[in-house]
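Please check this one:

***
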Amino acid sequence: MMNTKWMLPVTALLFLVASESVAQQLPAPTTWYIVRHAERDGSDDALTPVGFSRSDTLASLMEVLRVTHIYSTDTQRTRDTAAPTAAKLSLPVTLYGNHSKQWFEKMKAAHPGDVVLIVGHSNTVDKLVEGFGGQGDFKVSDDEYDNLFVVSTGGGKTRAMRIRFGQKSK
């Protein structure tokens, strides 16, 4: 008669070794952090003192989250929102324009396993989240500045969520 007491532990061990081996072969997830520019002064393009403070808070957060690339639209308010993160991490800010289907494909191909910050606008952050695969309601009202959207893609799955950071918006 065959002794099967050892089969379960050996099978479990083989599964763990195989799982670890497979995990090492999977690419690291790509994380997209998407924010609206910080508070601006009415219809002016400049940030308010609260906006500059929020940008500093964002920089501290992005440092902890180990951002590797920064993108911003070409407006003063988005560049000023991205600037403290760029300075803190010694990273350039790459400007982007319209985000077409081709742009999203190019971004995904260029950043496997990276941690990317993208600074946009109230009417673009939801489109950015969706373009990277996020599903849900990610709209931002004109008076919201404290949203940070996180889209993580990897292993055939995409996860998206909205969190709040810094001082609460009015």
Remarks:
- Confidence is low (pLDDT under 50) at residues 1-23.
- Residues 7-25 form the longest helix (19 residues).
- The chain has one domain: 28-164.
